[in-house]
Design brief:
Length: 32
C-alpha cells in the first residue's frame, strides 16, 4: 500500500509542475 501512495505522490507533483508550466513535459518521462 505504501508503494502505491509513493507512486501517486510522485506522479502528482510532476503533473502539477508540468501543468503550471514550471517544468518541461520531459519530467513525466521520469515516472515509471
Amino acid at each position: 500500500m505504501n508503494t502505491g501512495l509513493q507512486d501517486a505522490h510522485n506522479l502528482a507533483w510532476k503533473l502539477a509542475f508540468v501543468l503550471t508550466q514550471s517544468a518541461n513535459d520531459r519530467l513525466l518521462d521520469t515516472y515509471h
